[in-house]
Amino acid sequence: MQSELRKKLLDAFSRSEDEYVSGQFLADTLGCSRTAIWKHIEDLRKEGFELEAVRKKGYRITKVPERITADEIRLGLSTKFLGTQIHYEESVGSTQKIAHHLANEDAPEGTVIIAEEQLSGRGRMDRKWHSPKYTGVWMSVILRPNIPPPKAPQLTLITAVAVVQAIEELTGLSPQIKWPNDILINGKKVTGILTELQADADRIISIIIGIGINVNQQIEDYPDEIKNIATSLSIESGKKLQRAELVKLLLHKFENLYLLYLEKGFYPIKLLWESCAISIGKTITARTITGSIHGKALGITEDGVLMIEDEAGKVHHVYSADIELS
C-alpha cells in the first residue's frame, strides 16, 4: 500500500511539469490526509529529493537524487507494465539471483530489480562483470512471454536494440551491437546483456534479462585488465549522465519493442538489429565450443542465429560463440 501511494504521489509530480502541486490536490489524489502527504514529502527528502514548499502554491520537485531508487525511476516513467514493480537494493551479489528468486515467487511480468552495486555481477560464460557503486546501471527484468522456449534467445537481441535506442536518445552517441549480447562504442564495450531461461519442456515460465551499462565510470575506475576494452557513456560523451533517465528511456524503448515482437514476430526486430550490428558484411572469427569459424558475417536468421559464410562459400549457422572482428 505504501509503495502504491508513493507511486501516485510521483505520478502527480510527473504530470505537473515543474509547476507547484497543492497539498490538498495531492491529498485528494492519494486519498489521505495532508499530514500524511507531508510525511511522504519528508520521506522523499530523506531519499535525496529536493522539494520547494510555497504557501498557497504547494510543492515542487527541484532536484532528484544521484541514486537510482525506485522512486526516482517512477518519476516520469511512461511504461504500461515494465517497472510497475521495482526492487531497489544498495548493494547485492547479483540482480539476476534476486530476479530468479522473485520469479519463483510469482513476481509479475515487468518486475525490475536494480542495484547501485553488484559484488558478483557476471556475464556470459560466468565471466565477471565489473559493477562499481553509483556509476552504472545494473538491473534485471522479469518477462513471461507466451513463446516457445527455443525462441528465448531472441529476447537478447530485442534488449540490445532497446539499449542502443536509449543510449542514442540520451547521449547522441552511436552504439553498435556485437552479436549476441555486447554493445560497443568506438570498439569498446559499454553494455553487456545476460538472458536466462526458466522453462518446462514446452513452455516458458520466465525469462530473466540482466543488463549492465557503464554510465559514469572514468578510465581510472576500471581494473588494468579491462581498461583497453571497456568504456562508459561518460567517457565517450564527455559529460556526467543521469542514470535514472537512462533507465526510464530503456524501459520505454524495450516495452515498445517487446510488444511489437509479441504482435508482429521477430522480423521487424531483425531489421532493427542488423541496422545496428557492427559485424554485418565484415570478416569475423566465431569461436564456438567445437572450434572456430572464419568468414563473412551475412546477418541473422529470423530465429536470431548468426550466419557466417566461409571462404569455400559454405554458410554456417552459429547459435553461441565469442566473436572477433578481423
UniProtKB/TrEMBL annotation:
InterPro entries: aa-tRNA-synth_II/BPL/LPL (IPR045864), Bifunct_BirA (IPR030855), Biotin_CoA_COase_ligase (IPR004408), BPL_C (IPR003142), BPL_LPL_catalytic (IPR004143), HTH_11 (IPR013196), Transcriptional_repressor_C (IPR008988), WH-like_DNA-bd_sf (IPR036388). It is an enzyme of class 6 (ligase). It catalyses: biotin + L-lysyl-[protein] + ATP = N(6)-biotinyl-L-lysyl-[protein] + AMP + diphosphate + H(+). Residues 23-42 bind DNA. GO terms for biological process: protein lipoylation; regulation of DNA-templated transcription. The keyword ATP-binding applies. Keywords: ATP-binding, Biotin, DNA-binding, Ligase, Nucleotide-binding, Repressor, Transcription, Transcription regulation. CDD domains: BPL (cd16442). One of its GO terms (cellular component) is cytoplasm. Its EC number is 6.3.4.15. The keyword Transcription regulation applies. It comes from the Bacteria. Biotin binds at residues 118, 122-124, 189. PANTHER family: BIOTIN PROTEIN LIGASE, BIOTIN--PROTEIN LIGASE. Acts both as a biotin--[acetyl-CoA-carboxylase] ligase and a repressor. This is Bifunctional ligase/repressor BirA. It comes from Cytobacillus depressus.
